[in-house]
């Protein structure tokens, strides 16, 4: 039979009790700031939201890094395929162009989402 009363379980139980007490105090407005300076809090919240928008837009553009790497791999494999089989150049080229177009569309979606985050939200 496992021991239920270990140090780890007691530690987690203590964390849960502390979290419950803090949540109760916040719910009863003991730990919330006074409302006299609400304009300061609103201004700070607005600045935080604007920075968050720019950070979110930057995160969405990270997808473009993977797309650039993917297109490089597609091009390298197409050149390798043509080098191995020059007779299939037309078929390899058309497949490469279609693959790059599909890959680029994902990059454009990422760019559109970044622009929407910045200018629309």
Write the layout of secondary structure elements.
Layout: H1 7-27, H2 38-60, H3 63-84, H4 89-119
Helix pairs in contact: 2-4, 3-4
Residue ranges: pLDDT <50 for 5 or more in a row?
none
CATH architecture type of the largest domain: Up-down Bundle
Strand content: under 5%
Report the average pLDDT across residues.
75
Question: How many separate helices?
Answer: 4
* Major pleated sheet: none
Q: CATH superfamily of the largest domain, called what? A: F1F0 ATP synthase subunit C
At the first level of CATH, what is the class of the largest domain? Mainly Alpha
H/E element string? HHHH
The helicity comes to over 70%
Q: Compute the number of strand runs.
A: 0
CATH names the topology of the largest domain as F1FO ATP Synthase
Radius of gyration: 27 Å
Structural class: mainly alpha
Distance between the termini: 56 Å
Question: What does the overall shape look like?
Answer: elongated
Number of domains: 2
